[in-house]
Amino acid sequence: MNTKNILVTGGTRGIGRAMAIALAGLGNRVAVTGRNEQKLREVARELPGGIAILADVTDAAHSQSVIDEVTTDIGPIEVLINNAGIGGGTDGPQLLIDMDADDWWRVQETNVRGPMLYTKAVLPGMIERGEGIIINVGSYLSIRPSPMATAYGTSKAALARFTDCLAVEVADQGVQVFCISPGLVLTDMTRDLPFINDIPEDDFQRPEDVAGLACELVTGKYGKLSGHFIHVKDELATLL
Ligand code: NDP
């Protein structure tokens, strides 16, 4: 198999960690980012030939240096997975009326501005090489309204539109852009939702299921496809 150099943002936990480990298991060289040093050290041990970098996606001044560090350590980034995301403000998902405006902004900064910053930093290299894959991790809540998701749903809807607009922008330059949209996955992000304990664990979509789709997309088998919004939807997503 043709292996690749891949950067996964937010690879310390949950879906990002599962994607990083699955992609490394296929022989790809994988870099992950995150804000938790201990968890970065733990995941690094599971990424042979890969690296883990302390980086906050909201830190605009740092995004280019993260890309440069990954490029120096594992080679030019051939696949960027914009996974880092938050579900709400410091108190988790909230009704808009209860949400602090700074918390609203933090959700947009993390879930939309972060992917934009990392994408801008990798694009010149991808365009120069005439190939590259960008996978944005969206959400079912970008298309389905839900209470307490005004900030999150808005951010993920923006990310979906970012995906298809960018796909058109770079269509002639060999860069593919996808948005994968998980349903309800049991991770730190969803563990405290009120209805979670009523659901049998086996009924959840697993981080590994989302990772399987990412592995499929990076194979390069879908060379002509771009701009697609791909659901990893399950029945439980309708509970959100
Ligand atoms: P988790 O809370 O388990 O993990 C979030 C990851 O993002 C962590 O690795 C965290 O790392 C990282 N992260 C958060 N903020 C930042 C930041 N500012 N800078 C760098 N890294 C950051 O969430 P999930 O695994 O569930 O979510 C992953 C993605 O999947 C998100 O984009 C989410 O919106 C999306 N998603 C999740 C669903 C679910 O049901 N769980 C459903 C649909 C979409 P650290 O703490 O080390 O910074």
Descriptive terms for the model:
alpha/beta, Rossmann fold, 7 strands, oxidoreductase activity, acting on the CH-OH group of donors, NAD or NADP as acceptor, NAD(P)-bd_dom_sf, oxidoreductase
Please, could you describe this protein's structure?
It contains 6 helices and 7 strands. By secondary structure, it is α/β, with parallel strands linked by helices. It has a single domain, classed as NAD(P)-binding Rossmann-like Domain (Rossmann fold, 3-Layer(aba) Sandwich). The longest helix has 29 residues, at 101-129. Residues 9-16, 33-36, 39, 56-58, 83-86, 110, 137, 139, 182, 184-185, 187-190 line the site of NADPH dihydro-nicotinamide-adenine-dinucleotide phosphate. Belongs to the short-chain dehydrogenases/reductases (SDR) family.
Supply the CATH architecture. Answer: 3-Layer(aba) Sandwich
Mean pLDDT: 93
Number of strands: 7
Q: How do the strands of the widest beta sheet line up side by side?
A: 3-2-1-4-5-6-7
CATH topology: Rossmann fold
How much helicity do the residues have?
A: 40-55%
CATH-defined superfamily: NAD(P)-binding Rossmann-like Domain
Provide the CATH top-level class: Alpha Beta
Assembly annotation: single chain
- In terms of per-residue confidence, which ranges show pLDDT below 50 for 5 or more consecutive residues? none
Number of domains: 1
Keywords: Oxidoreductase
InterPro entries: NAD(P)-bd_dom_sf, Sc_DH/Rdtase_CS, SDR_fam
GO molecular function, one term: oxidoreductase activity, acting on the CH-OH group of donors, NAD or NADP as acceptor
Pfam family, one: adh_short
